[in-house]
Every structure is written in C-alpha cells, then in structure tokens.
Amino acid sequence: MRLLVTGGCGFIGSAFLRAALSRSSVERVVNLDVLSYSGRRENQSELEREARYRLVVGDIADAALVARVFQEEKIDHVAHFAAESHVDRSLFAAQAFVHTNVLGTLVLLEAARGAREKGRFERFLHVSTDEVYGDLGDTGDVFRETTPLSPRNPYSASKAGADLLALSYVKTHGLPLVVTRSSNNYGPRQFPEKLMPLVVTNALMDRQVPVYGDGKNVRDWLFVEDNAQGIFAAMERGRPGEVYNLGGENERENLTVVRAILAALGKPESLIQFVKDRPGHDRRYALDSRRAHGELGWKPAVTFEEGLARTVAWYRANEPWWRAIRDDSFDAYYERHYGKLGLKEQPTA
C-alpha cells in the first residue's frame, strides 16, 4: 500500500498516520497538509524519523502539486481527511470551506481517476461527518447511511457537497471509493476551538467555560483512535460506493461533558458560563453503526470514561502544545464567538 493521507497534521489525520504506520502492509505514507491554523506540524514530528514516511506541505486544491505527488510516490491509496471543519468559523468565512472541502476533494478525485486509468490505483477513502445528516431533534431516531442529507450550516453543506461529488465518481468513473461518517471525535491533539479541548484548556487556566444555549445539545462521542481504526478497516474491507457510519455509542449532553471535564480536573462548576446559542445549532446527532460492525468487523474499543481520562491527562502533560495556540490571535477569535468572558486567567487561592 502506497498511501496518500491528506490533512495528516490535523487531529484525526495524525491519529490515522500512527495507525497506518503501525501496519506492515503499508509500504509508504505521504502526508499532504497545508499546515493551516489547526494543522500542527508537531502532531507528527516524531514520525518524520520513519523511513516510510514523508510530509509534503501544500494545498490539496493545487492540482499540479497533487499530480506530482501521485506520480513521484506511485500512490495507490488515498485517505482524505483534509478539511475546514469548525462550524463556528464557517459562519463567518464560508469561502475557505468551499475551497478546501469541495474544490480540494475534486482535485484529489481527478488525480485518483487518472491513476486508476493507468491501472495503479486501488482505493479512495473519503472522510466525512455525521453533521451532513442535519438534526435529529431531542430524542428518538438515529442517522443511518440511507438517511437523506440535510446540512444546516456552511461547514456541513460543504462536506455534504464533497460526499456527493466523491460518490458520483464511483458511478461515473468506476473509482473504488468508500465514505466514512463519524460522530464527534475527541482525544489528544485536538485544536482547542472544539468543545472538549476548549473546556480543558480554559479550566486549566481558570477561565470561564462557555456553553452554548442551555447546554442540552446531544453529541455521540468517539475516541479519535477508534475512528482511525474504523477508517482503516473501511479502506481495507469497505465495499466501493458504500457509506459507513462510525459512531461512538456514547451520547452525552454538552453540559454533561463539560461537568465531567471539570470534575476530572478538580475545577468548580462555577466556571461554566452560558452564552447565546450559535445560528443553526443542531440539537442532536446519533449514528447507527451496524453496517460497520457487520461488514468491517469494527466497533469502538474505548469507553467514554476512559477516553475522557486519557484526553484530560494528555492536555495536562502537554501544556506547551496548547499554550502555543492559546495566544492573542486565539483570544481575538474566542472573543468574536463568545464575548469577553473568561479572557483573563483568574487568581487561584
């Protein structure tokens, strides 16, 4: 397997890099990453000593660069993670989401199609999200792979567009492509604009913790290493043209998650500050993952309690990693979304 991983300096992509390089079946891994604000080179720095591994810094929408990487490295598999992925940012800067998530996906599909026509391409794994399905409401049903797509913000709309574009290449060009849609990922190395690392790092700095609305929005939480294993299983054993839901089977209200993190850190719940809900905030996501269980032989292995403990411990032990991010520019972004609350560290007793 000569594997191109896009976005491997990001949170999920870097976990997948480690999973891929642990397998003897993988001859070569090339990581193409533009090193945007959330693509951290240090997420994969120790892998650069691995002879089978190469980092290429560049934009997936650069067709000439992508074609050159395919040619030089004789790529026969793609695991496509690279994406603008934060809903809040998409509300103010949607163009970047269309550029990366839609145009970038098209460039990769075309490169894979060209390699396929030359007889040397085997599998394209397109990584998506449960957010393309829309909103389930407070209780009840779960999303299945056959659920109609109903995205409700620019981020999820761009991912839904990329999904449909990718799946069209199966029908029109015979590209052996599989899509995975996972629930909310969490774990080490997640950029601290997302809920869990934002809460952990704010609490470690004794800052207020913003919670949207009433805090009762429900997400299904999947530990990032479990997702990486599911994606690899889909790349190896998934049927071309199929979508596989990868759910954590850990539904929790956001407020419950926040309280659990504060308890793990020994911080008071008085740090919680409810803020105005964001536009189009989906109430609940939940996935039916039985297809992945049956066809891929995959199930999540890490319980929510274990994953949360490992996540909190990692941020405690890696303060330089997140302190480098939590700078003035992050505070400016933070204030735009949440107001001025919690921008200053509080005195400790």
Overview of the molecule:
This protein has 349 residues and is an alpha/beta fold. The chain has a domain at 2-186 and 222-246: Rossmann fold. The protein is 41% helix and 16% strand. The chain has twelve helices and twelve strands. A seven-stranded parallel beta sheet has the order 3-2-1-4-5-6-10, sandwiched between helices. A three-stranded mixed beta sheet has the order 7-9-11. Strands 8-12 form a two-stranded parallel ribbon. β1 (2-6), α1 (11-21) and β2 (28-33) form a beta-alpha-beta unit. The longest helix is centred in the first third of the chain and has 24 residues, at 94-117. Residues 343-349 have low confidence and may be disordered.
Overall strand count: 12
Shape: globular
Order of strands, main sheet, comes to: 3-2-1-4-5-6-10
Element-level helix/strand string: EHEEHEHHEHEEHEEHEEHEHHHH
By secondary-structure content and strand pairing, the structural class works out as: alpha/beta
User: Per CATH, what is the topology of the domain at 2-186 and 222-246?
Assistant: Rossmann fold
Corresponding CATH superfamily of the domain at 2-186 and 222-246: NAD(P)-binding Rossmann-like Domain
Helix content: 40-55%
CATH class of the domain at 2-186 and 222-246: Alpha Beta
Strand content: 15-25%
Q: In angstroms, what is the radius of gyration?
A: 20 Å
CATH architecture of the domain at 2-186 and 222-246: 3-Layer(aba) Sandwich
Low-pLDDT windows of residues: 343-349
